[in-house]
Amino acid sequence: MLQIAICDDDEKELEYIYRLTEAYRDIHPELDIAVRKFQNGYDLLEAVNARSRFNVYLLDILMPVVNGIEVGAVIRQKDSAAILIYLTSSPDFAVESYTVEAQGYLLKPFIKQHLFAILDKKIAHLDADDDRRLVIQTPDGGVEAIPYCRLLYVEYTQHRLIAYRLDGQISKSVYQRESFKQLTAPLITDGRFVKISAAHIVNMQHVSAVTSRQFELANGKKLPLSRIYKEARKTYLDYLLERGVSNT
C-alpha cells in the first residue's frame, strides 16, 4: 500500500489537493493508495510520532505554529526514503526546501496535470509498482500469474481455486491438496483482500457496496456474506477509512 499524507492549513486548498489525490488514486489501482489529510503540521507530526508511516508527503509551507520546512525536517530525520513535495504560494522557500531533501516544489495555483506528473516521476523511484501475483497452475499444464490489483475475487470449490478478474476472464486451477486458507494466505496478509465466506475472498479495491448480507463488486456481481465472517464488513469499512474514502 502507498500511503500519502496531505498537510495544508487552508481548508479549501486542503480539499482541492485531496480531490486531486483521490483522482490520482482512481487511475492507479495497482498502487493501492491510502490518503490522509491534516490541517496543521502539529497533527501530522503527532501521527508520524505515533508510528504512522507515509511514503509521500504533500506539504504546504506557510502554516502557523509549525511550518512545512520544519515539518519536513522532522520527517526526514525519521525516514530518509520518504518523498517530500511542497505545494506553496511562495517561491521564497525553494532553496530552503533542499535542506530537507525535498523532491518536488509546486507553486500554487496548479492543475492536476502538474501534480500527477511529479507523482508519477517520484513514485516510480519508490519501486511501489504492484508486482504481486496470484500464481495458478491450470489443468492444461500452464501457469498463470494474475496481478492482485486485477483480481475481483477468488472462489474455492472442489479443491480448486477459481480466480475472477476485472476484465471478465476466469482462471481455474488444478486440484489443490492445500486448504483454501493455505492457498490464499498471501492475499489476506496483503491487506486488500477479505474472506467473506468459507469459499470466497474478495478484493476490497473493487467492492462497490456492502450490506449486512452481501458484498457487491465493481462488475455488479453480488456475493453472500456469511454470518461466520460478519466481521468482513467492518474490515471493509476500516479499509475505506484508512484510504480516506467515504463509505458506500
UniProtKB/TrEMBL annotation:
Residues 3-123 form the Response regulatory domain. InterPro entries: CheY-like_superfamily (IPR011006), LytR-like (IPR046947), LytTR_DNA-bd_dom (IPR007492), Sig_transdc_resp-reg_receiver (IPR001789). It comes from the Bacteria. The modification 4-aspartylphosphate is found at residue 60. GO terms for molecular function: DNA binding. Keywords: DNA-binding, Phosphoprotein. May play the central regulatory role in sporulation. It may be an element of the effector pathway responsible for the activation of sporulation genes in response to nutritional stress. Spo0A may act in concert with spo0H (a sigma factor) to control the expression of some genes that are critical to the sporulation process. This is Stage 0 sporulation protein A homolog. It comes from Bariatricus massiliensis.
